[in-house]
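Suppose you are handed a protein chain with no further information: no name, no annotation, nothing but its sequence. What can you learn? This example shows the usual starting point.
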Amino acid sequence: MIRQAIIPLAGLGTRLLPLTSVYAKELLPINGKPGLEYIIEECLDAGVKEIVFIISKKKKLIKKYFYNDKFFKKIIQKKKDPRIYREYEKIKKYKKKSNLFIKIIQKALVMLY
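A reasonable first move is to predict its three-dimensional structure. Written in structure tokens, the prediction is:
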């Protein structure tokens, strides 16, 4: 059984410019939810207990998406929209169901065989 998923979130998203200059392409919505959530759901359905995202310094928005509870609480209080609250609860569920780690890599990794 697979227990750990290591997911490199790489690339600059140049094909999606200018949108990806301010927003990580992994968080762009696909059918109303970020593409990254589809990956997490697949991992959890497969029984993965630990999910590791490898990101660069430029993609700190991904880390903020999962770990910045103050940001979501402010939006929930301001908007009072039940859909936003459901999304926040879903993110909390992801954190409870698995060990979610986000590792920021400073330099490019080169693998030699």
